[in-house]
Amino acid sequence: MERLSSLWVDKAMIRLLLSDIDGTLIQYDPKIHKTDVDAIHQLQEHGVQFGLVTGRDIGFCRHLLTHHNLQADCIVANNGGSLWIQKHKVLEHHMDGEEVIAIMKQLDAYVGMCHPFICSEEREFFLMKHSYTADAWQSIRKTLAYLGNLSEEDLLQHLHRTKASVVKISLYTCNEQTTNALLPKLQAIFKEYEVLPTSIDYIEITKKGIHKGNTVCTLMDKLHLKKHEVGVIGDGHNDVPMFSCVEHSFVMESAQEEVKRHGKRIVKSVAQAVQCVIQYNQNEE
């Protein structure tokens, strides 16, 4: 695969900007602010490629982009578990069905404190329905209705029936306090996996060694990009691994102080990061 722009060879310019979604490109309202949408269009008009790097699934990413009339040149989805370049899936790191069943059986004791689920590529969500009372099931369906299509089929039944492989397991924790309480427990139980908080109310489990940092490095390798040619922006602990992969790392002002320490520059928005990239490239011309 060729460089993103052959016109920039031997120039120390930023050719690609990757943005996290939750807490960065969108906040609690799942809409991208118009100033950020306009900035992304401006970025691409200046010849800089744009991509997403997120814990979200590919279906959510596509819907978000389409809704805002945006184009992504690449998408790192599922917290590094999937990589898409243009419209082509380049790689995906799966856990096999039996492996996921074993994990889910261990998570069953925590249902209520958190709500584990998986998502198919068609954006159908499966929860451990049989672990809930009828009233609790209806309650969590209402709470998670924003995700989209919540299946009535129990997650374990689905896995036994389909033998489907899974890229990641998501756990909705309801709030930051529960996330902080659960995280060390789950990391101790699942030492052979990556267990990371992806927002204040989500924890995600992927195969060991699978995170945003490694997959961003893979993306750079496939696009023949060097560290100084890529910028990233994020706000969470799961973004930290990718900050060390590039020279240009932007951290949201709203991020926790521990996360901010790993970035090169603090910004208030994606739009501000875009302006930094454009100005940097103009100075390098």
Describe this structure in words.
The chain folds into 2 domains: 11-92 and 210-284, Rossmann fold (3-Layer(aba) Sandwich); 97-207, Hypothetical Protein, Haloacid Dehalogenase-like Hydrolase, Chain: A, domain 2. The model is unreliable at 1-10 (pLDDT under 50). The protein has an 8-stranded mixed beta sheet with strand order 5-4-3-2-1-12-13-14, with helices on both faces. Strands 8-7-6-9-11-10 form a 6-stranded mixed beta sheet, covered by helices on one side. Helix 1 links the parallel strand 1 (16-19) and strand 2. The protein is α/β, with parallel strands linked by helices and 285 residues long. 35% of the residues lie in helices and 22% in strands.
Write the layout of secondary structure elements.
Elements: E1 16-19, H1 34-45, E2 49-53, H2 58-67, E3 74-77, E4 82-85, E5 88-92, H3 97-107, E6 115-119, E7 124-127, H4 134-143, E8 149-150, H5 155-162, E9 169-172, H6 176-189, E10 193-199, E11 202-207, H7 212-222, E12 230-234, H8 240-243, E13 248-252, H9 257-260, E14 265-267, H10 270-284
Parallel strand pairs: 1-2, 1-12, 2-3, 7-8, 12-13, 13-14
Antiparallel strand pairs: 3-4, 4-5, 6-7, 6-9, 9-11, 10-11
